[in-house]
Design goal:
- This protein is an alpha/beta fold.
- It has two domains: 144 residues, Rossmann fold (3-Layer(aba) Sandwich); 63 residues, Putative phosphatase, domain 2 (DNA polymerase, domain 1), CATH 1.10.150.240.
- It has ten helices and eight strands.
- The strands form two sheets. Strands 5-4-1-6-7-8 form a six-stranded parallel beta sheet, sandwiched between helices. Strands 2-3 form a two-stranded antiparallel sheet.
- α6 links the parallel β4 and β5.
- 40% of the residues are buried.
């Protein structure tokens, strides 16, 4: 049915929470903002950092840009590689390739960061295409996903499936006309019940569940 499997990055391929949260704390302290509860800070993982900062602190565009640059400098130079691959991810990627699937990554993480971290963790070598957000964080998940599909040479949206862990992933897939698989081991969805309001073909609680879905 599917020719390509497209993964979100944060919370799907890699647990990037340690690095992102450390950089969020640094940015909040540097800018003199009030501290946030841990559960609120976890919502910063995945979406563009600028949008999260504007949402939580009601920042102007100019101030959000300044805070975003502080975050990016800290994250890129100190915290980018504070991450780990989820158990079974490497075996899953190898099995997908062995069974003829193309593999893509569609993330709202800035594209240069996405490529760098995936190369560091030896995931990039399993991927045909890696697509991330633009420097100005203006791209939506739909934008990134459709670009990824185009670069992978998919003729129809239904030739690919997006695997992700958040509402942003589910909405992006729906808007792009792409089937969606939710995972509950990341940062957004916790149970199948969390996903029920979004169109999806499957909910995976573990990486092994993803393998079972594809029969590999």
């Amino acid at each position: 049915m599917y020719k390509a499997v497209i993964f979100d990055l944060d919370g799907t391929l890699l647990d990037t929470s340690a690095g992102v949260l450390k950089s969020v704390d640094y940015t909040i302290d540097k800018m003199g903002y009030s501290p946030l509860e841990n559960e609120v800070k976890r919502t910063f993982i995945g979406p563009p950092i600028k949008k999260s900062l504007m949402k939580q602190y009601g920042l102007s565009e100019e101030e959000a840009d300044r805070a975003t640059e502080i975050f990016r400098d800290r994250y890129k130079n100190h915290d980018l590689f504070l991450a780990k691959a989820y158990d079974g991810i490497y075996d899953l990627l190898k099995a997908l390739r062995a069974n003829g699937y193309k593999i893509g990554v569609a993330t709202l993480k800035r594209e240069d960061y996405a490529i760098e971290i995936l190369e560091h963790f030896n995931i990039a070598e399993h991927c045909d295409v890696i697509c991330g957000s633009d420097f100005a964080s203006k791209m939506t998940k739909k934008d990134v996903l459709m670009r990824c599909e185009s670069l992978m040479g998919l003729a129809f949206s239904k030739e690919g499936i997006l695997i992700g862990d958040t509402t942003s992933d589910a909405v992006g897939a729906f808007e792009a006309g792409v089937d969606f698989m939710a995972v509950t081991f990341g940062f957004g969805f916790r149970t199948d019940g969390d996903v029920k309001e979004h169109p999806h073909v499957f909910t995976a609680d573990t990486v092994e569940d993803i393998r079972a879905f594809f029969g590999i």
